[in-house]
Design a protein that fits this description.
Helices cover about 5% and strands about 55% of the residues. It is mainly β and about 850 residues long. The strands form 13 sheets. Strands 18-4-16-30-42-54-66-79 form an 8-stranded parallel beta sheet. A 7-stranded parallel beta sheet has the order 17-5-19-31-43-55-67, with no helix packed on it. The chain has a 7-stranded mixed beta sheet with strand order 6-20-32-44-56-68-78, with no helix packed on it. The chain is built from 2 helices and 79 strands.
């Protein structure tokens, strides 16, 4: 067959005839296909799928794998005042020689350490991510097949396929008549797919160290060697050291901050599918057997066609409507980098000291070799630098929502009609309407990085000390080698640096919601009718389920496996005032020699320990999680089957049209923490020491009042306050309301408690052309799906179902009792059948001719 289209008309040509099929419909809003056959079979097949894919949206991605380190702050200060004196003296009958006086000035140092630089690492992915669902709207489909015959052998027709324009086919043969109409018109719309922002950080962050070192020192070293012969008041050095004052403040460690953030709303719309109306009919009519039967009773041969084979009319319509829900996956923030706060360090020292050596040989000499030594006070004020805080924040936030699909089925009308001898009529309608619920997966925050606060350290020392050594040989000499030594006070005030706090915060927050699907089934009207003289069968099958799935919502997820350690606080403070005196004497007929007088100053230490840094680990997942149940509204279904014949006849109507709405499924937020948390140690060590070590070695011969040391030590006061250990806080929380609505399944006229789906506007269902047929028997059988109900809750899903309004009937008559005619009256029955058959034949021919 060659087909062409001109001026909106379709013309089908064959060897043996030309038929004008009528004006074609080229509009995308309607698809029409018609097949007719005179003395043959007519087959019409339409395949008009409509599909629309949803959009895909992928959010921003921020990736950081670089390490960040703050610069170190450092300082070193020193103040020194010192003197070194050496005297060698040989005195013969000389007085007042070899007695140096040495004084050193004060040494003052003020030292402030530089702070370590902060290290900040920020990884951010932000912005809304949305994906629209597809919208699919199917055109209306009209398909019909008609075959009329009156005798002959087997044969077949030529199929006609329609997509978006009108098409027709016709066939002619001497075989049996048959009409077959097949419609495949699925409508599907996919939901959008949206994946939120992703922020990933694997870089390490280290705050800079703060350092300081300060020292003040005042000291003198004196050495005197004398030989005195008949000499007095020689070799008595006077040594005084100035005060040493050091004020040292440590530099603080730099803070280390690591922030990984993924934020923004993520939404995916569900697909919207609107099925088109479908009108499919098949009609097969044959009078061959009936005319032959009339000839057997002597009636004239009406058309001379002879015996004819059995007839069959079949109508198949498949028009599923499906709308998928959107899929929304929330933001993701992942951090595996370690965070360490910088260390704060300080070291301060104040020292004042003197070292005096006197070596004397005295012969008949007086008041020689008695050094006087005084050291100034040593004062140290030392404040340790604090450790830098380490903060690790990983957060994923934003609203995640997925809409359910909306599926609206079109109305479907199907009918099959067969009139003849040994006829069959089957109408099968499959029009499921299904709407999938949205899927929403909340935000995800994952942290596996370790967090350590910086260490705070301090070291302070104040020391005032003297070392005096005297070697004397006295021969008939008095009042020699009597050193007087006094050390100044040693005062140390030391404050330890605090350990830096370590804070690890992992949070996933935001509402997560998934809407249930909305399914509105279309109305279905289906009928089958078979009238003949032989065995007849009529079957009507309707499969029109309406299902709406509930939403599926999984809340936010926060996971932490990183360890958190607060920084240690450290302090070390010492105050020392001490003297070491050593006297070696040989006294021969000598008096009042080698009697050292030693006095040490007070030693005062005030030491305050540094506190350990707090360790805080917070893992939280919060937000409302909700899943709506599906809303299903079934359409009306009307189905009937009728078979009338002289032989065995059967009629059966099967309707499967359940309405089901599944409940929502909601899983709440999940917070998981497997990391260890340890507060920092608080440390302090303080010492105050005032002491003297005096050693006298004497050899006396006829000598008096020799080698009697006098030693006095100052008070030693230590005030030491320990540092507190840092607190360790580990908080894991999952909060927010979790709700799942139950599904709602109702008939078109029903009501849902909280939401009523809008019923689709259905066009008026056209009535198929039916032949004159007997009235159905008044005994219909209904098939109604029983009602079952349930509700959704956390971690569960529920469904409700309700039977669609169904009107189903079938009748099978072995007699034509409804006419009042006796079946034994062959003539009356034949005339009745002839009248009906002629009407159908003429109507069929009028539809196939111009």
């Amino acid at each position: 067959m060659n087909r062409s289209v001109r001026n909106g008309f379709a013309v089908a040509t064959m060897a043996g005839g030309v038929w004008l099929l009528g004006q074609a419909v080229a509009s995308a809003d309607e698809v029409a296909a018609t097949s007719t056959a005179d003395e043959g079979s007519a087959v019409t097949t339409t395949d008009t799928p409509t599909q629309s894919n949803g959009g895909e949206a992928v959010g921003n991605t921020a990736t950081n794998d670089g390490n960040v380190s703050g610069g170190d702050g450092s300082n070193s200060g020193s103040a020194s005042s010192g003197a070194t004196v050496a005297v060698g003296q040989d005195d013969h009958r000389s007085d007042g020689n070899g007695s140096p006086t040495t004084t050193t000035g004060a040494a003052t140092n003020t030292s402030t350490g530089g702070d370590g630089g902060a290290a900040t690492n920020s990884t951010t992915a932000t912005g809304d991510t949305s994906a629209d669902g597809g919208t699919a709207t199917s055109p209306a489909v009209q398909a019909s097949a008609e075959a009329v015959g009156s005798g002959g052998g087997g044969g077949g027709g030529t199929p006609s396929v329609a997509s978006s324009s009108s098409s027709s086919s016709s066939g002619s043969s001497s075989g049996s008549s048959g009409a077959d109409t097949s419609v495949h018109a699925p409508t599907s719309a996919n939901g959008g797919d949206a994946e939120g922002n992703v922020a990933t950080n694997s870089g390490n962050v280290r705050g800079g160290d703060g350092g300081n070192s300060g020292e003040a020192s005042s000291g003198a070293g004196v050495g005197v060697g004398c030989e005195n012969l008949h000499s007095d008041d020689n070799c008595n050095p006077m040594t005084t050291t100035g005060a040493a004052t050091n004020t040292s403040t440590g530099g603080n460690g730099g803070a280390a901050t690591n922030t990984t953030t993924a934020t923004g709303n993520t939404s995916a719309d569900g697909g919207t599918a609107s099925g088109g109306d479908v009108d499919a009919t098949s009609e097969a009519v044959d009078f061959g057997d009936f005319l032959a039967w009339l000839r057997g009773y002597g009636y004239p041969d009406w058309d001379g066609m002879g015996w004819y084979d059995s007839l069959f009319a079949e109508t198949l319509a498949t028009a599923p409507t499906r709308a998928n829900g959107g899929v929304a996956v929330g933001n993701e923030a992942s951090n595996s980098g370690n965070v360490v706060g910088g260390d704060g360090y300080n070291s301060g020292q104040a020292t004042t000291s003197a070292v005096v050596y006197v070596v004397c040989f005295n012969y008949k000499s007086t008041n020689n070799c008695s050094p006087v030594t005084m050291t100034g006070p040593a004062t140290n004020t030392s404040t340790g630098g604090n450790g830098g805080a380490a903060t690790n924040t990983t957060s994923a936030s934003g609203t995640t929502s997925a809409d359910g699909g909306t599926a609206t089925g079109g109305s479907t009308t199907g009918s099959s009609e067969s009139v003849g001898s040994g006829t069959g009529a089957v109408t099968a309608i499959t029009t499921p309407t299904r709407a999938m619920g949205g899927e929403a997966y909340g935000n995800w925050a994952d942290n596996s990085g370790n967090v350590v606060g910086g260490t705070g350290a301090n070291y302070g020392v104040a020391d005032s000390s003297a070392t005096v050594v005297v070697f004397c040989f006295n021969y008939k000499s008095d009042d020699n080698c009597n050193p007087v030594t006094t050390t100044g006070a040693a005062t140390n005030t030391s404050t330890g640096g605090n350990g830096g706090a370590a804070t690890n915060h992992t949070s996933a927050s935001g509402d997560t919601s998934a809407d249930g699907g909305r399914a509105m089934g279309g109305d279905v009207t289906a009928s089958s009718e078979a009238v003949g003289f032989g065995s007849n069968g009529a079957g009507t099958l309707v499969n029109a389920p309406t299902q709406a799935n509930g939403g599926y919502a999984e809340g936010n997820y926060a996971s932490n496996s990183g360890n958190v350690r607060g920084g240690d606080g450290g302090n070390y403070g010492v105050a020392t005032s001490g003297v070491e005196v050593t006297v070696y004497c040989f006294n021969y007929k000598s008096n009042n020699n080698c009697n050292p007088v030693t006095t040490t100053g007070a030693a005062t230490n005030t030491s305050t320990g540094g506190n350990g840094g707090a360790a805080t680990n917070t893992t939280s997942a919060s937000g409302t999680t909700s899943a709506d149940g599906g809303r299903a509204m079934g359409g009306d279904v009307t189905a009937s089957s009728e078979a009338v014949g002289f032989g065995s006849s059967s009629a059966e109507t099967v309707v499967d049209a359940p309405t089901r709405a599944n409940g929502g499924y909601a899983e709440g937020n999940d917070a998981d923490n497997s990391g260890n948390v340890r507060g920092g140690d608080g440390g302090n060590y303080g010492i105050a020491y005032s002491g003297a070590s005096v050693t006298v070695h004497c050899w006396n011969y006829k000598s008096n009042d020799n080698c009697n040391p006098v030693t006095t030590t100052g008070a030693a006061t230590n005030t030491s306050t320990g540092g507190d250990g840092g607190s360790a806080t580990n908080t894991t929380s999952a909060s927010g309301n979790t709700s799942a609505d139950g599904g709602c399944a109702v008939h078109a006229a029903g009501d849902c408690p909280s939401e009523e789906p809008t019923a689709p506007v259905q066009p008026e269902t056209p009535s198929p052309v039916q032949p004159v047929a007997p009235a159905p028997a008044p005994a219909p059988a209904e098939h109604v799906t029983p009602v079952a109900s349930g509700s959704g809750s956390h971690g569960t899903s529920g469904s409700t179902s309700q039977g669609t309004s169904v009107s189903a009937s079938h009748s099978s008559a072995a007699t034509l009792a409804y006419t009042g005619a006796d079946v034994t009256d062959a003539l009356g029955l034949g005339l009745l059948a002839l009248a009906g058959g002629m009407g159908l034949a003429l109507a069929g021919r009028r539809r196939t001719t111009v």
